[in-house]
């Protein structure tokens, strides 16, 4: 096994910088999600690591060894893409065996390794079938088995679950994570789906316009986003903008918001505060706001969206619409047009430099 180090990698296509000085350390045996909007450079970065494309500058190492001059087939990387191209005229077992056959492994070794890979992806009895006789999820498992049967050092996954419907996708997320843990392979996973990134990975890197915006464990990025972009791209956030004061900001209407974490911003400079919708308490104002909720604003409910176990309230105040998510516990519902008080703690508030 091996970690992957990407250091100061840049890659341009004409005048367009697809990757701009990106450095990431992908830990040995870790599950790392690359997240970012369309065109942010996720696939380009994966292609540099695989060796399908080469950086204009910067270094890439696998297991501590520089791979800039190492061709794709010698990098010992397994890959699965959204459009898994299985050979339609070959059986499942022959599809999986392909890489081993090309390497000239003995017949007995191939048979044993293919069976092990089939068992690992829980398709032990389906080796004799053709790809068209499998479901989408099963075909994706075959693609995964084919990628890992050669015992690669690194597994690259580019939207591997993108073609699956929601229920199957969730099943495959669990499955993929189990397999990754079982073989302990360094995995780099590209996804559009922020929930998938949050639930599956040990670390997340967020790319935007070819630059790494922030990276770290999922909880850290979610709880302490360093930019408005990271706050709103990974999860939902209410953003308040104003002028920095000690330990928070002052909004244009004079209201102050206290934040106990985030950037240190000199007083008077432009800054914002981010607050997750589930951290805000909403009440009719009849009772007192929760203790420790030093931040308080008045507003009016403009809409409520029911989503089964929770509801989202949209609350208007001073030309801004705020989102508040509450668990549906059977307590009284707030109706549209109702005046409300929002309150939350400084610990739930992150200060962000403009
Ligand atoms: N071979 C190429 N020639 C020219 N431009 C390219 C090439 N490959 C990628 N690009 C451009 O580089 C940018 C990054 O592309 P990339 O495929 O890495 O984005 P992505 O984050 O993977 O997007 P998506 O989520 O849509 O797959 C895009 O603007 C894309 O158009």
From TrEMBL:
Q: What is this protein called?
A: Spermidine/putrescine import ATP-binding protein PotA
What is the top-level taxon of the source organism?
Bacteria
Going by the UniProt record, its keywords in alphabetical order are: ATP-binding, Cell membrane, Membrane, Nucleotide-binding, Translocase, Transport
Q: Which GO terms describe its molecular function?
A: ATP binding
Q: Which family does it belong to?
A: Belongs to the ABC transporter superfamily. Spermidine/putrescine importer (TC 3.A.1.11.1) family.
Task: Work out whether the entry's keyword set contains Transmembrane helix.
Answer: no
* Its job: Part of the ABC transporter complex PotABCD involved in spermidine/putrescine import. Responsible for energy coupling to the transport system.
Q: What class of enzyme is it?
A: translocase
Q: Which Pfam families match?
A: ABC_tran (PF00005), TOBE_2 (PF08402)
Catalysed reactions, as listed in the record? ATP + H2O + polyamine-[polyamine-binding protein]Side 1 = ADP + phosphate + polyamineSide 2 + [polyamine-binding protein]Side 1
- Stated EC number for the protein is 7.6.2.11
Q: Tell me which residues make up the ABC transporter domain.
A: 4-234
**Summary of subunit composition and partner proteins:** The complex is composed of two ATP-binding proteins (PotA), two transmembrane proteins (PotB and PotC) and a solute-binding protein (PotD).
Q: Which gene encodes it?
A: potA
NCBIfam families in the record: potA
Q: InterPro entries under this entry?
A: AAA+_ATPase (IPR003593), ABC_SmlMolc_Importer (IPR050093), ABC_transporter-like_ATP-bd (IPR003439), ABC_transporter-like_CS (IPR017871), Mo/tungstate-bd_C_term_dom (IPR008995), P-loop_NTPase (IPR027417), PotA-like (IPR005893), Transp-assoc_OB_typ2 (IPR013611)
């Amino acid at each position: 096994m091996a970690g992957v180090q990407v250091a100061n990698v840049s890659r341009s296509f004409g005048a367009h910088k697809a990757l701009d000085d990106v450095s990431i350390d992908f830990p040995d045996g870790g599950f790392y999600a690359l997240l970012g909007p369309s065109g942010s450079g996720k696939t380009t970065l994966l292609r540099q690591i695989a060796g399908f494309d080469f950086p204009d500058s910067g270094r890439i190492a696998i297991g501590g060894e520089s791979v800039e001059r190492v061709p794709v087939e010698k990098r010992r990387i397994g890959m699965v893409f959204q459009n898994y191209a299985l050979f339609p005229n070959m059986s499942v077992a022959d599809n999986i065996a392909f890489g081993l056959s090309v390497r000239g492994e003995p017949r007995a070794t191939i048979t044993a390794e293919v069976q092990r890979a089939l068992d690992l992806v829980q398709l032990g009895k389906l080796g004799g079938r053709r790809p068209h006789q499998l479901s989408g999820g099963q075909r994706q498992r075959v693609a995964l088995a084919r990628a890992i049967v050669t015992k690669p050092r690194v597994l690259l996954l580019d939207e591997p679950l993108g073609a699956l419907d929601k229920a199957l996708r969730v099943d495959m997320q669990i499955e993929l994570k189990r397999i990754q843990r079982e073989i302990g392979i360094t995995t780099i996973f590209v996804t559009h789906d922020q929930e998938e990134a949050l639930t599956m990975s040990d670390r997340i890197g967020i790319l935007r316009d070819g630059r790494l915006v922030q990276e770290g464990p999922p909880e850290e990025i979610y709880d302490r986003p360093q930019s408005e972009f990271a706050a709103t791209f990974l999860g939902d956030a209410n953003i308040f903008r104003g002028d920095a004061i000690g330990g928070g900001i002052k909004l244009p209407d004079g209201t102050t918001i206290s934040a106990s974490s985030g950037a240190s911003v000199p007083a008077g400079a432009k800054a914002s505060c981010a607050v997750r919708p589930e951290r805000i308490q909403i009440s009719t104002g009849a009772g007192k706001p929760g203790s420790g909720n030093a931040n308080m604003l008045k507003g009016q409910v403009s809409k409520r969206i029911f989503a089964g176990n929770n509801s989202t309230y949209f609350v208007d105040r001073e030309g801004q619409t705020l989102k508040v998510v509450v668990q549906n516990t059977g307590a009284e519902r707030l109706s549209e047009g109702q005046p409300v008080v929002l309150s939350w703690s400084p610990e739930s508030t992150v200060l962000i430099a403009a």
